[in-house]
Amino acid sequence: MSHLFRNNQLAWIAIGTNQGNSQALYRRVVSRISNHPRGLRLVGKSAIYRTQPVGNVKQPWFLNGVVVVETKYGPKALLNILHTIEHSFGRNRRREKRWGPRRMDLDLLFYGQRVLRTKNIKIPHPSLHLRRFVLTPLAEVSPQLIHPIFGKTVDMLLQDVDDAARVEHLLF
């Protein structure tokens, strides 16, 4: 893989949406990420998956997937960019219900092999290993990526996940 940036890093971002025209929103957010003016370059993306919601909130199924970007930004700056993109798609984190519907949800899953735990940022994402809807597209783009805390590949985490929620590959 050729590198665009000096001191660059690969980052894996989960995308989720279940409000409005989810297909169009999903495609628009991938386009927004891939056309970011500078400092981000899309280097991989999964298929789109239709996924059963987690939690006890009655809501439509989600569309989920994962993109891989090469970035010159540090993890905190990248997370701020992702939150800005979410907000531009109508997300208001303060008004949403936990496990509730999302117009757009962007989660920073991994930032290279970095482990970072602060009040505002947790890398790797602390519950990615528990969620089939994250692991399935992640395994598609980076099956041999090793979780820096658990020492297991994404494929191994997917095989071990205890999550019965349905995840369906979409063909559109």
Short note summarizing the structure:
Helix content is 26%, strand content 24%. It has 172 residues and is α+β, with helices and mostly antiparallel strands.
State the fourth-level CATH superfamily.
Answer: 7,8-Dihydro-6-hydroxymethylpterin-pyrophosphokinase HPPK
Gross CATH architecture? 2-Layer Sandwich
H/E series, N to C? EHEEEHEEEHHE
**What's the rounded overall pLDDT mean?**
91
In total, the number of domains comes to 1
Kindly estimate the percentage of residues that lie in beta strands according to DSSP: 15-25%
Q: How is the biggest beta sheet arranged? A: 6 strands, antiparallel
Q: Cα-atom Rg, whole angstroms? A: 15 Å
The CATH topology assignment is Alpha-Beta Plaits
Q: Kindly state the number of beta strands.
A: 8
The unreliable regions are: 1-5
| Shape category | globular
Provide a count of the helices: 4
Helix content: 25-40%
Terminal Cα span: 27 Å
CATH uppermost class? Alpha Beta
Q: Structural class from helices and strands?
A: alpha+beta
Could you walk me through the main structural features you see in this protein, from its secondary elements to its overall organization?
There is one protein chain. By secondary structure, this protein is of the alpha+beta class. It has one domain (9-169): 2-Layer Sandwich (Alpha-Beta Plaits). The protein contains four helices and eight strands, in the order E-H-E-E-E-H-E-E-E-H-H-E. Strands 1, 2, 3, 4, 5 and 8 form a six-stranded antiparallel β-sheet that branches. Strands 6-7 form a two-stranded antiparallel sheet. It is globular and about 45 Å long. The chain starts with 8 loop residues before the first strand and ends with a strand. Residues 1-5 have low confidence and may be disordered.
